[in-house]
Amino acid sequence: MAPRKTTKPVKSATTPCPPCNGTGEVSRPVRVGRKRRLVGQQAGMCLNCFGAGEIPADD
């Protein structure tokens, strides 16, 4: 009987998205008034990965 072959773990084909760090959400500033004052931040979908949190490795 032949000995078993060991296989190496397959490297993932995707990598975490750099702008959102793999979460799929980024924070956007919220501005109000005529002078466009910054009052806070709001969570929004990452447009780089479209909310998936990962991008293909070939990019």
Task: Give a description of the structure.
The chain is an all-beta fold and 59 residues long. The model has no long low-confidence stretch (mean pLDDT 82). It is built from no helices and four strands. The strands form two sheets. A two-stranded antiparallel ribbon has the order 1-4. The chain has a two-stranded antiparallel sheet with strand order 2-3. The termini are far apart.
Structure keywords:
59 residues, mainly beta, two-stranded antiparallel ribbon, 4 strands, 0% helix, rod-shaped
Strand content: 35-45%
Spell the H/E element sequence.
EEEE
Class by SSE composition: mainly beta
Q: Main beta sheet: strand number and arrangement?
A: 2 strands, antiparallel
Give start-end ranges of low-pLDDT stretches: none
Task: Provide the spatial order of strands within the biggest beta sheet.
Answer: 1-4
Summarize the structure.
The protein is mainly beta and 59 residues long. The protein has no helices and 4 strands.
Question: Helices, strands, pairings?
Answer:
Elements: E1 14-16, E2 25-32, E3 37-45, E4 54-56
Antiparallel strand pairs: 1-4, 2-3
